[in-house]
Amino acid sequence: MTVPTADSDIKASPMHAHCQTCRLNSLCLPLALRLDDLEDFDAIIRRRAPLKRGETLLDPRTPFHHVFAVRCGSLKQQVVHAEGEERVTHFYLPGELVGLEGVAGDGHPGTITALETTALCEIPFDRLDVLSAQLPALRRELYRCMSRDIRDDRYLHCRLAGHTAEARLAGFMLDLGYRFQRCGLSATRFRLPMSRIDIGSHLGLAVETISRLISRFQQAELLHVARREVTLLAPERLAGIARGAPIGERADA
Amino acid sequence: MTVPTADSDIKASPMHAHCQTCRLNSLCLPLALRLDDLEDFDAIIRRRAPLKRGETLLDPRTPFHHVFAVRCGSLKQQVVHAEGEERVTHFYLPGELVGLEGVAGDGHPGTITALETTALCEIPFDRLDVLSAQLPALRRELYRCMSRDIRDDRYLHCRLAGHTAEARLAGFMLDLGYRFQRCGLSATRFRLPMSRIDIGSHLGLAVETISRLISRFQQAELLHVARREVTLLAPERLAGIARGAPIGERADA
DNA sequence: CGAACCCTTGAGCATGATCAAAGTCCGTGG
DNA sequence: CCACGGACTTTGATCATGCTCAAGGGTTCG
């Protein structure tokens, strides 16, 4: 089944992912597995056909059977709040697990949609559960993943409840950078996968406010944004703003 | 201490809790365990001396070894956001698990403090982990607990990012009632364990705003509050407000 | 080439923060 | 038992942040 190095076997069993060769295997679930355990894990997961932009992975009516690992691309989760009104509650980046909220039963709390072309590994939760009984490292890693999600939500709570719009957006940008760094990309130069509308919905701010803030941040030389390409020019100052400091004026040329 | 009828060994080991006789055993971790499995679980947990109001259970420097189940009383979690400024990120009520954010390592994200006299069961996570390998029902219940926390945080996100202060407070009150109901109390009549200051910090609103809103809700006959005793008079209308509806005027006598 | 959709910028307005000052409840100790 | 101190709560007045409405420009995709 599993194979040493090359892509040769990928063609042979195109529906199976292979964790051994996955660029993200140091972030994803099998993190702590020994090589032979990895094969057991590898055997239960399935590579799905990539989702295209705007396609939905699951919604509240989807019965819960799988969790997913993002291999590349990104997704958003939206929860219907009032009629017609949706909030973006979460963004998923490469190496992150999707669908853990569904384990509790009673369906998924929201709709999860691809923001761009997105490849996922599909992991049947029943088999993951059984395997986790046999592999302590896997089990603990799964506990850790869920725990980290809870912890991250606590920090997010701080950012949302923290007053100013400036602080929220600054914190959001830094968090994105941090998460891109986790999957091997730059923490200071990246491409926003989501629209300003999504950012606004996520942070509880109007689109116009997001737009104005980005302009103001650029004037203050905190970051540079062209279309959706972002460069964080002064992460420390952004961190200060996220904690409530005022926007310092730009050095002025 | 509490036990009338059954096992004689209970007096022998007063520091051990006994899940079989716990009023909350239908909510807490052993939910799905058979009686003999329950004894295994029972053997690893320890009843702690109750915390008094204001005493802290753990803080970011506490090494992670245990999770806790609230037997009675309540706690709050605070995370330092900016210097000197703290946000209340979570309240813990009876039957809920405390400390799951710590599993991921790198310490707990905040300080957890008792809001009133609070009794807890202390569960060593290492032993829980090992036991969960042997008891599928326990393992799945643990997954479920963590999953539910994540899901609840998504809903909380909606409430926080949803605009008006009215909607936030209405949603908060309903959520509290729902959680009290889960542990066998009334969903519409309960005692607030936390101060208005804590509520404000949790919802990202000024204390004054909380106070004014409570007054306004009372005028509209949505609820009745005396000191910290709350009666929800019109839960459906509150639910409407939480979704963004305006406050209807009171029927007027 | 047109049509969505997304993004930006402007002007006026309302919600909730801030500052200020009573009033209330509680535990503590006289 | 009552008086005191401290923390919590309520209410009022003013002000600023960020929302709403409105319109113009850009990009992408069929």
Describe this structure in words.
Two copies of one chain form a homodimer. Chain A is an alpha+beta fold and 253 residues long. Chain A has two domains: 8-145, Jelly Rolls (Sandwich); 162-242, Orthogonal Bundle (Arc Repressor Mutant, subunit A), CATH 1.10.10.10. Chain A has eight helices and eleven strands. Chain A has a four-stranded antiparallel sheet with strand order 1-8-3-6. A four-stranded antiparallel sheet of chain A has the order 2-7-4-5. Chain A has a three-stranded antiparallel sheet with strand order 9-11-10. In chain A, helix 3 (125-134) packs across helix 4 and helix 5 crosses helix 8 (235-242). The radius of gyration of chain A is 20 Å and the shape is globular. Residues 1-13 of chain A have low confidence and may be disordered. At the A-B interface, strand 4, strand 5, helix 3, helix 4 and helix 6 of A face strand 4, strand 5, helix 3, helix 4 and helix 6 of B. The first copy, chain A, binds a DNA duplex (30 and 30 nucleotides) through residues 163-165, 195-197, 205-212, 214-215, 227. Chains A, B: Pfam families: cNMP_binding, HTH_Crp_2. Chains A, B: Residues 163-236 form the HTH crp-type domain. Chains A, B: Keywords: DNA-binding, Transcription, Transcription regulation. Chains A, B: InterPro entries: cNMP-bd_dom (IPR000595), cNMP-bd_dom_sf (IPR018490), Env_Response_Regulators (IPR050397), HTH_CRP (IPR012318), RmlC-like_jellyroll (IPR014710), WH-like_DNA-bd_sf (IPR036388), WH_DNA-bd_sf (IPR036390). Chains A, B: One of its GO terms (molecular function) is DNA-binding transcription factor activity.
